[in-house]
Amino acid sequence: MSRVEPHPDEPDFPRRKEDWHCVPVLREHLAQPCWMSRGWLVLFCLWGAGGGLSRAAAQEADFTRYAHAADYCRGDVARPIALAEDKRVLCLDGAVTSDLNVAVSADLAKQGIAVVRSRGGDPARVVQLANVLRDRNAAVVVRDFCLYSCASFILLASSEAYILDGALVAWGLFRRYPDQDCIGFKEGKDEAGPFLTSLNCSPDYPDERPRSRLWNEFYRDRIVEATYTDPPQSKFIRRELMNLFRSAGDYPIVL
User: Fold this and answer.
1) What are the start-end ranges of the H helices in 75-162?
2) Per-residue pLDDT tens for 2-37?
3) What is the DSSP string of 5-60?
4) Pairing state between β 181-187 and 194-200
């Protein structure tokens, strides 16, 4: 994995793969969830295995065009965003800042490929890019890493997504209510126990904040299962986060 730029809210985020220590907690055909830790930082992530598909499914699928697209985006292209001359491949390599012009993505060919390597960025701008990828029915291909809003929005942007072997996907918490924000545990609709999330501490505007409404619409349009939570947290992860809170007396800083 290439060097990972630290997120501005996480200055001590480990920059190199060798700084991470991964202990598998569950093995699935699709991916291997793992717990990574470095000092006070605890990282709950999704580590790509075998290109993101089971062995049987991988034998049936042709990954050649995705591999070629990833190779193209590793080359000498504009960063953080670029479109191939034939308009079949879009490259996102870097953070999505609030002033990033994502208009070039609208020229991506229908059923093209979007190769992403990003630690996320401004959620509103990321959602704007994700909506374009959905409209183009693009296949999303993750190389190296996809963190924060990249995992929350771009990975789920369209109907098809692939995580290249060795790539890392990790989710983080967002401030949904910036002026009256709290972090805490909330009971999930899936009855899998309370999950760590951003809470609205003010009862005055329960569902009217623009960013909250934007994100709710995003998942409503894409997630079939109404009990989906962002960040997605299994029973194991929820239990571990609760244990960390109880032992430290404070909410853990996590991905």
Assistant:
1) 123-135, 149
2) 333 344 434 344 445 455 444 333 333 333 344 333
3) PPPTT-TT---SGGG-EEEE----SSEEEEEEEETTEEEEEEEE-GGGS-HHHHHH
4) antiparallel
Write out pLDDT tens, residues 144-176: 999 999 999 999 999 999 999 899 999 987 776
Residue in the block written with tokens 């401030």: 175
CA distance 131 to 210: 17
CA distance 218 to 55: 31
User: CA–CA separation, 255 vs 252, rounded Å?
Assistant: 10
Residue 129 · residue 105 · CB < 8 Å: yes
CA 1 centroid distance within chain: 17
Would you give the distance in Å from CA 141 to the centre of its chain?
A: 12
Tell me which DSSP letter residue 4 carries: P
Six token digits for residue 105: 């993505």
Contact assessment for residue 43 and residue 255, using Cβ atoms and an 8 Å cutoff: yes
